[in-house]
Amino acid sequence: MVLHTLRLATVPLTFTTSRLFLKPSPTLSFFSRHVQPRKPSFLLRAFSNSSAVQDTPLTQTSSDSSAARPPQWKAAIDFKWIRDNKEAVEINIENRNSNADLEAVLELYENMVTLQKEVEGIREERNNVAKKMKGKLEPSERERLVEEGKNLKESLVTLEENLVKLQDELQHVARSIPNMTHPDVPVGGEDSSAIRKEVGSPREFSFPIKDHLQLGKDLDLIDFDSAAEVSGSKFFYLKNEAVLLEMALLNWTLSEVMKKGFTPLTTPEIVRSSIVEKCGFQPRGDNTQVYSIDGTDQCLIGTAEIPVGGIHMDSILLESSLPLKYIAFSHCFRTEAGAAGAATKGLYRVHQFSKAEMFVLCRPEDSESFHNELIQIEEDLFTSLGLHFKTLDMATADLGAPAYRKFDVEAWMPGLGRFGEISSASNCTDYQSRRLGIRFRPSEPLQTGPKKGKANLPPTKFVHTLNATACAVPRMMVCLLENYQQEDGSVVIPEPLRPFMGGIEAIKPKLR
Amino acid sequence: MGLHTLRLATVPLTFSTFTSRLFLKPIPPNTLQTLGQFSRHVQPRKPFLVRAFSASAAVQETPPTQASDSSAARPQWKASIDFKWIRDNKEAVEINIKNRNSNADLGGVIELYENMVNLQKEVEGIREERNNVAKKMKGKLEPSERERLVEEGKSLKESLVTLEEDLVKLQDELQQVARSIPNMTHPDVPIGGEDSSAIRKEVGSPREFTFPIRDHLQLGKDLDLIDFDSASEVSGSKFFYLKNEAVLLEMALLNWTLSEVMKKGFTPLTTPEIVRSSIVEKCGFQPRGDNTQVYSIDGTDQCLIGTAEIPVGGIHMDSILLESALPLKYIAFSHCFRTEAGAAGAATKGLYRVHQFSKAEMFILCRPEDSETCHDELIQIEEDLFTSLGLHFKTLDMATADLGAPAYRKFDIEAWMPGLGRFGEISSASNCTDYQSRRLGIRYRPSEPVQTGSKKGKASLPATKFVHTLNATACAVPRMMVCLLENYQQEDGSVVIPEPLRPFMGGIELIKPKLR
């Protein structure tokens, strides 16, 4: 029995303050400008970069899935903008390897517009008839008008029903349209992704190395076998120093990111499935990554991006409260349907894990600079831990539907003998905010008019949202265990984490 | 915007022994059914009564919804219940069932058991007859005699098949009905309902406030620490976000608790939070039915855990431990998920009763003769932790009607919550003796007597025994937050952080109202 004595060293933390927001307005504006919509039913948005999952062939393409059940919520998609920018949208859909059916969207949209006009026409006729009936009339003429009014009312009811159906179908089909893409994003598949940055070099080992699975077993840190019996494959227990390492990683990450003015959060891990959809994930279907709760409309979250995205749902924020920067800690749950092969070994792909996720809500004009801030924070964190990694500007076909641009960080995993994704930073522009209904009211122009109230307020705009992994614990553990292993089988703890795990400097083999 | 600068102070932590223990993990599951079916000292369990995660009697007393037709579904696993012991101790079991306010049908269990024993005898008789017929046929026989024997053998075989099928059905039914029998009860446990629970200890006194106090909900809002409103939109009622210092406080509570409990030789764990529903059942919880506390995953046989007791109980499932490896002491951190079906009223206000929360749970596997000592150790650890945090609390020896089916004895700790104006349960320590281990199949092999026989191998090994299991809350975060926020509030609206937690939250001494 070895007794380690641990110490927590002195580390400065910076703490942020709370912001003010308004939270009124449950209505969604239907036809607003600058649309970058999304894809729900055809292409699944995978949580991670695995294109194996993203390229899943569509199971139910045709329209029968759409019109049948009305959508439970409405995305504020700017159809006029899509129609007016047809070519750009078409090219974008192709570049992103999306199955979105732009033709159908436009056709449904035109039909809807036509039907709307028709409905308006009949309403007008009905008003005219009603007006006529106010005057003195022959009984036969009155009877004729009553009959006409009745007919008009009947056809109006039918047409309005059709209009609702058409709008529902349009919603359904249009949600598959992905966000537009940043002009600098390389066009093509995974191979086309551009390297933005590379840090460090692979460590050279003078002894035969082990992978994290072997290290986890030898050091009594990870138990996959018991978890397979208790829960199923790809579940695990962390044990001994691994528990402290997880806590240290999260504590350290939180304290570092809080220094940059991010507000810490813990989140619900069960959410309504509509929130999952609004964030651009697909909670249903054969290949879904999402665990659903039996007998409810709730799901388990695959990432804290979902509950954090939902915090300001259906609200209008003050411009002065932006940006809102959050660092959220949660457990994440993923079915990993369709995942198989060597990439799924050990901790690399698991059903449940801990993660600290950054999330930013900001003005449209600021989202690009926040995207840069987020990737910078990630790079700083991984550099502090001494990892060898590269940052990629992901190619169009590798973007999930909500992302306007996505930077991935891939780190060297010596035991696996390859680079593996350890984090991802996406700018979703207004894709999510148009679904979640998150707006802000620009403070300029100043209220100068004599009238007070709504009329003087500038119109609201949709915020931009960004999300970025600060620390996905299992993949960090793969990196740390495999990169910091020693010839004697021990693993060195990187300097920055030591104060957060009571001063432990190395994980040593246990005495038997 | 106030900027606080935080420091993590230097604090010595003792780290527990990281020696991994040796266990045997052989025994394929199918041999289990035959193994401990008729062993001694049984304390079985109740499927009709839902075992509530907390002491809420409202949920426990749910009437059985489907009592009889349940035999239709075959049990997916077998509890090693000692039916012979139950039959031989009928009166004691009967009184125990009554004292514990259980719906278990002892008469039904014993009748099914007797039927099963009779049927077993009948099956054995026919097997013997069949062997006799087979023997007779080996000799020289008249063709007519042979034909008669062939016919007899055939009809014996047929009735054997039928009887064996009946036997399986009977065994299944017996399993189903017998699982409702609760564990036996420690002789010192007070008999009666909640009011009969005995106070073991009382620490501190209620703080006297010189100003109008707020409850934790108000403090959580005023200090921007807890957001129930957004969570009810995103997830549903009784969900929440923690924000700002509350996030650090949660981490500090868990870090501090882990480091304190590790000093006592407990091995830290994180656990899966999705488990097979059979494991939930084996731990004595009911994962199905209208009033279940358990969230199930759609389209699988998996559930969300309501407590880390479940996945930790499952770690050594179907295994034989070395006696020298005992006791195994774990401190497990997990999130817990509970439907809280049927919960309502003032007791459910704010953080007191929520669908999801963080918890550090202690779990011990030990030899039967050690479980009472371990139980005392667990409640002592809890009391020490809460005393360090300066809480006013009392420890109760819970009365018979307030015990879940698995508990042989249960100590609850109730702490004073000034905002709620009452004591509220903050932790619980149960000795489940062999109730869970008989269901999970966790045994050990006593090391004595020394192998002296000339034969090597199994024959000379002592018989295995079921371990005893115990579980105890080290820190259920939301209820600790209720206590800390409400007890440590100041007149200016701030909340003081208790001394022991400060080093774990960067030296913060006070949660102050934010500047707007």
Automatic annotation (TrEMBL), chain A:
Residues 211-494 form the Aminoacyl-transfer RNA synthetases class-II family profile domain. The keyword Heme does not apply. GO terms for molecular function: ATP binding; serine-tRNA ligase activity; tRNA binding. It comes from the Eukaryota. InterPro entries: aa-tRNA-synt_IIb, aa-tRNA-synth_II, aa-tRNA-synth_II/BPL/LPL, Ser-tRNA-ligase_type_1, Ser-tRNA-synth_1_N, SerRS_1_N_sf, SerRS_core, tRNA-bd_arm. It holds the Pfam family Seryl_tRNA_N. Residues 105-176 form a coiled coil. Keywords: Aminoacyl-tRNA synthetase, ATP-binding, Coiled coil, Ligase, Nucleotide-binding, Protein biosynthesis. L-serine binds at residues 303, 334, 357, 467. ATP binds at residues 334-336, 350-353, 421-424. Its EC number is 6.1.1.11. GO terms for biological process: mitochondrial seryl-tRNA aminoacylation. GO terms for cellular component: mitochondrion. The record marks 469 as: Important for serine binding. NCBIfam families: serS. This is serine--tRNA ligase. It comes from Brassica napus. The lineage of its organism: Eukaryota, Viridiplantae, Streptophyta, Embryophyta, Tracheophyta.
